[in-house]
Amino acid sequence: MVDQGNWPYEHALTEYPPVALVPMWLAARTWDFALTFGLLMLAASLVLFWATVRLCEAGGGSGAVCAGALILSPIAVGALWRTHFDAWPAAMTMAALLALARDRPRLGLGLLGLGAATKLFPALLVPMALVWLVARGQRRAAWQGAAVFAVVVALIALPFAPHGLARVVTFHLDRPVQIESTPASVLLAVGDSSVTGVPGHPDAFKSQGLVGGPADAVATICSLLSLAAIVAVAFAARRRPDPRWLVLCAFATLVAFVALGKVLSPQFVIWLVPFAALAWAWREWAAAAAVTAAIVLTQLEFPARYCERVYGNTGAAVLVGARNALLLVALTSLLARVVAPARWRRPAAAATR
Amino acid sequence: MRTSRLVAAAAAFAVVGVLATTVEPTSNHSITDLSIY
Description:
The structure holds two protein chains of two kinds.
Chain A: H1 8-11, H2 21-28, H3 33-58, H4 63-77, H5 80-83, H6 87-101, H7 105-119, H8 125-135, H9 139-157, H10 167-174, E1 177-178, H11 182-190, E2 194-195, E3 209-211, H12 215-236, H13 243-260, H14 269-281, H15 285-301, H16 306-310, H17 314-338, H18 348-351
Antiparallel strand pairs in A: 1-3, 2-3
Chain B: H1 3-22
């Protein structure tokens, strides 16, 4: 389609930002899409590996422990590493955090811009990163970084803007509560909502969701809680100017988005893998264990039990609910770590060991 | 971590990654059977 000179957002129902289309386009030009796509994700994963280990060391942790956790992570995640493009923006995110930790704020914010032009979620880290830079006394670098982020996003988005790029945003705002999300687990307990994407009830968003009854209200409440957590973490980023604090704040931000958002696609756990490895190396036991267990449960559920979840199997619903509960445990642990008053937290000396 | 060890660890990560995503039980071959995502 792109090869034929068409704009991707005018002629196809794609909801991915422009840079996400690059690996798909590259793979489609080869004789074996799956193999090429998998190799591209492997390359991205190696960047993620390097950046995460170096980030661990920048935060005063053991690179060997972090590397060990990352080496085991594909077993916990499974085929999602290979079949979805999320390793690509996750690698950009970790490289961005490493650049920020190494005092390269403009490069860091630029990489976040590139990541946001791939899958939006790295943009969540921008306010927190800017607050952290200002707390380090780098107010000028913060503004310059914000400008670099805006320029990178604009340069990538502007050519597509008149050709339906807004769909990337409206798709995600308009879609219903996705069936594996935390709001969906709540709705399952409450009842009165119906499943979309099944025979007789089509879904326009290429997924399965829950609509009707209290679905909108529950989704709104969870979204507001997620937003409140993200804002609180962004303010808390000013408390300490060290790299470990930056990463913990980024971890809390992404877990808040994943655990409380109205969509929790299985591949989202790839974003959390490097942070879980860092948490193991930095002895953030609660967050590390909860997120790791959530990743394993995600593989147990998807794809083998996904259809069971859609058609109301109690066991599959409990499995997904347990996964979501673990993510909420991780969120609570991280919020207690970075947002709670100082007298509730561990002493700084222990925290930066 | 010295660069040589980091390279070795990255190679181990790549090998585990390839095996875990292509060999059962973690390869989840049915993942491409679903029309979603």
